[in-house]
User: Which sequence fits this backbone?
């Protein structure tokens, strides 16, 4: 029929083909893997392999959904505590990154135009060395006989080393250090576009520079604040490497639990269920963000 | 205190703003404003008129406090404000691009300055209401700036700068973003609002018609200094230099030499004709001068005028129809092209001239201005 033909010819015309490419990659690289994880999370372990969800032995498909992993997550308070603590660490990291990153981005955006590309380069410079290497470097700085403690002791400031490694402190240092650029870059992009005339207009209407910052600059950079916060918050919730190397066993982060389920307990359905719940945890703030964006645009 | 501009120019006007020998040099090299002095009287609308890059905005921004003069002083109502930051000056500015706060509603934009002054809530609401009515924006109070048309944004910007009842209002190309038609209606609207509030006003524009329509006095600027300051009709009818004559409206300039220099008249011999000017000028016989003649003061006819002065002849090479008037381009025998503007006061073309016709242009002996070279 005509409509059907129209549908296919529309599907294959250039415009739709171009749009379909990102969809294709999204389906291949994000949607399918997540569906596989979801499937595993609803199975159970049979020896060393995962049970089949669909059983064909009777000639017709028999679907078995196994919710025991999820039940276990919600019955064992340790998981809940770990999720909560992950969110806390992620929130705290986001907040500290914002507090440090905002003035950073602000002065970058206000510095002379010819200096800005260089400052931007400096922000991105750490990315040129391996992430793992940089985290290890912090280890050598923070250890009991690390550089900082040794320096302080040789100066006579302290007698016994300060325990910094494997604490919340070392974890936060590592997370803030690693994710600060992700806060600064969107903030800088936003603040450098801020029209200086708004600040002039505010001053003209009797606003001191300090007040104008809070009344004009901050509200107008809301999009940058939200983008930066998302870029820090979402990856830090599930962060594994930094808690593993700097946080130690006392800091509860869901990424490490996930790793243990996979590689120590070899319990793939459990690990997948932990991951699925984590994805949901990340999707909630994302959805809130998208909704606020849509509302802001509709206004 | 709605005062018409004409009444203000009485014997002893009260000076509100005094700019003394102000110079602004950017980056040590760019001289944007060069030793400018001016006074603005209370209740006056003063226009700074000049071409692009002549330093109008810079001068205005020094009045607002966004730039500090390299040299010179600025006084407001007797007080030296040269080094006062903008947020402490009782001066408000309407920005060329409006600079309405995009995250605030129209209402909040207008209330912004009042809140900073710590005005009680009830009074703020009252004042904002008054301003909204003044600008006929009542319906739009809760809208965000981007939901308004250009003309509406312009009115919000105006009343936002008026809300605090500033002693001095600065307008930087207030109508620059509007199209020609809207501009003309808005000019008068703007003047009405300004006069209703009774605020003194400095206006920057590069549009000479806008300056003439709105201002009670005009300063013509070029390359950072003032060429002439005066009332619109003075600047138009008696420009003091070629640049001013050229800048304000259309003008034909004849180069010539003073031939006869009497107390009640002079004659200037030009290659095209001899001008008989019916008043004395400061000059001497043999001096090289320019004679400026506005197109609307030239009359065209196909008959040879009487006498030997104040006429020339040429060929019509171009006719530009403007509706209310028509401009004829006349190529004189010397090769010079002059423009003559005829009113279309009847429905057939007024003097029946057409392309290629030979025509006589003539004018009376008080029509021109003699300018020193
Ligand atoms: N911040 C600045 N730094 C350096 N030079 C400047 C600066 N602002 C203006 N200038 C220069 O000073 C001169 C006067 O500029 P100004 O903005 O006052 O001109 P204007 O008369 O307002 O022109 P326009 O009608 O185009 O707005 C120009 O040559 C301009 O390039
Ligand atoms: Mg300007």
Assistant:
């Amino acid at each position: 029929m005509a409509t059907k033909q129209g549908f296919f010819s529309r599907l294959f015309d250039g415009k739709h083909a171009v749009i379909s490419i990102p969809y294709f990659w999204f389906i291949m690289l994000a949607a399918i893997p997540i569906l596989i994880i979801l499937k595993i999370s609803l199975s159970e372990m049979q020896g060393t392999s995962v049970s089949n969800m669909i059983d064909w032995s009777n000639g017709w498909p028999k679907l078995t959904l196994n919710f025991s992993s999820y039940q276990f997550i919600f019955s064992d308070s340790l998981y809940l505590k770990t999720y909560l603590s992950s969110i806390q660490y992620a929130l705290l990291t986001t907040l500290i990154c914002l507090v440090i990153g905002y003035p950073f981005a602000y002065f970058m955006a206000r510095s002379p135009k010819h200096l800005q590309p260089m400052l931007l380069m400096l922000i991105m410079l750490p990315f040129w060395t391996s992430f793992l290497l940089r985290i290890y470097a912090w280890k050598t700085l923070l250890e009991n006989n690390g550089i900082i403690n040794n320096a302080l002791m040789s100066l006579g400031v302290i007698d016994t080393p300060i325990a910094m490694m494997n604490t919340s402190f070392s974890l936060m240092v590592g997370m803030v250090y690693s994710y600060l650029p992700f806060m600064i870059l969107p903030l800088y992009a936003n603040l450098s576009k801020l029209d200086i005339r708004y600040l002039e207009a505010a001053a003209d209407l009797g606003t001191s520079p300090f007040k104008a910052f809070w009344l004009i600059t901050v509200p107008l950079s809301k999009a940058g604040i939200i983008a930066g916060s998302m870029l820090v918050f979402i990856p830090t919730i599930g962060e594994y490497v930094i808690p593993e190397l700097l946080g130690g066993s006392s800091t509860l982060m869901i990424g490490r639990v996930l790793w243990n389920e996979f590689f120590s307990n070899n319990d793939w359905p459990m690990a997948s269920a932990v991951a699925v719940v984590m994805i949901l945890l990340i999707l909630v703030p994302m959805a809130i963000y998208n909704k606020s964006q849509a509302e802001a645009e509709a206004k | 205190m709605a005062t018409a501009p004409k009444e203000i120019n009485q014997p002893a006007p009260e000076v509100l703003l005094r700019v003394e020998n102000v110079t602004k040099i950017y980056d040590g090299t760019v001289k944007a404003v060069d030793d400018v002095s001016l006074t603005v009287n209370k209740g006056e609308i003063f226009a700074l008129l000049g071409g692009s890059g002549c330093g109008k905005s810079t001068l205005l921004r020094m009045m607002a406090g966004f730039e500090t003069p390299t040299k010179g002083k600025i006084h407001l109502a007797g007080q030296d404000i040269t080094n006062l930051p903008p947020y402490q000056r009782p001066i408000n500015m309407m920005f060329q691009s409006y600079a309405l706060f995009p995250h605030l509603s129209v209402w909040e934009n207008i209330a912004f300055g009042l809140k900073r002054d710590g005005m009680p809530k009830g009074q703020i609401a009252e004042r904002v209401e008054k301003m909204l009515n003044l600008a006929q924006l009542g319906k739009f109070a809760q809208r965000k700036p981007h939901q308004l048309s250009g003309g509406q944004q312009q009115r919000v910007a105006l009343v936002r700068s008026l809300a605090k009842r500033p002693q001095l209002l600065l307008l930087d190309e207030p109508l620059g973003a509007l199209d020609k038609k809207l501009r003309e209606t808005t000019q008068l609207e703007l003047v009405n609002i300004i006069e209703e509030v009774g605020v003194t006003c400095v206006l920057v524009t590069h549009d000479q018609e806008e300056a003439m329509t709105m201002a009670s006095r005009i300063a013509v600027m070029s390359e950072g200094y003032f060429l002439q300051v005066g009332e619109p009709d003075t600047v138009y009818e008696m420009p003091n230099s070629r640049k001013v004559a050229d800048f304000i409206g259309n003008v034909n300039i004849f180069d010539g030499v003073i031939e006869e220099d009497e107390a009640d008249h002079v004659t200037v011999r030009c290659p095209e004709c001899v001008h008989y000017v019916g008043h004395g000028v400061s000059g001497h016989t043999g001096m090289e001068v320019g004679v400026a003649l506005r197109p609307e003061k030239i009359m065209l006819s196909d008959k040879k005028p009487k006498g030997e002065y104040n006429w020339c002849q040429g060929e019509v090479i171009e006719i530009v129809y403007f509706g209310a008037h028509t401009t004829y381009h006349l190529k004189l025998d010397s090769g010079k092209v002059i423009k003559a503007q005829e009113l279309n006061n009847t429905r057939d073309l007024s003097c029946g001239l057409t392309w290629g016709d030979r025509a006589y242009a003539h004018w009376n002996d008080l029509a021109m201005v003699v300018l020193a070279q």
